[in-house]
Amino acid sequence: MRFYRNRLVRGYLGGVRQARNPDRFTGFDGDDNLPAHSLWPPRATADGKNTYGLFHVVNIALNVVDSKRLAWQERKAEPFTISPRRCGSAYKGFRSSKDYGAPRGISLGTAMAISGAAVSPNMGYCSSPSITLLLALFNVRLGWWLGNPGAEGQRAYKTEGPSFAVKPLVEEAFGLTTDDRPYVYLSPTAAISKISACTRWCGGDVDSSSLSTPAILIHFDDLQLMKNRPSDQDTNEQRRFTESQFESYRSLGFEIANRVLSHEVIIRGVPKLTLQQLLATLPATIHNIPAGWNAVAASCAI
Hints:
By secondary structure, the chain is an alpha+beta fold. The chain is built from 8 helices and 9 strands.
């Protein structure tokens, strides 16, 4: 995997650098592989401060082939992102890109190599027990083990990977990857969806709270909902929900209910409340209506 990464770095990142000091034998230059956190804020141009620039968000899959969550038994992977500010997932949390994955922070070459890897023993939805075992035994392993960004990886997230490689090899070979251990197995985004790495156009400074990529994850989930919903052309036999379809409708219902309940209800003479707060104040039975509710009901009717 490191050789694959080094070739990508040499071909793409090193190809645009004029002042290089490459190794005479391999042609590699360590300075070609810049840290991901150095990409933001963008460098000033000849015209002055660069207030508009591409904010790179690299999409990766965190494999959970052995996950106990029923909703992920078919997908077998979580969305994982690497950006100049944060690395992690909405499910496990985020770490600073300056600290995550290496003493100097995770490099752009490493993120690019993981996201663009062609094959890996554990690839989320594409994982197969027999192929997983063969790929692992023949060392066709283009995924990457990095520290868990969650609480389980408190002592591991700053390292470049496990110091003892036998256990990760066994977990890859038998599809035992999950997200509740100190190290997690990362592989290409094809493990989740055909959606490739995306970029966000930012103006001015970016607040660090936006680096948890909620918008990107929401858009991703919306696309998954549309992709997984049963078609109107399906027969009754085909409309039996798969795990992903059931989870898509459950998530859609949760999102709709959450937005409806958090919507403000405007009633004359009553302070602003959300629908959830309003429903919480309703009496348990019609015999326990408190004083003042008749006026509220009358104003609602009007």
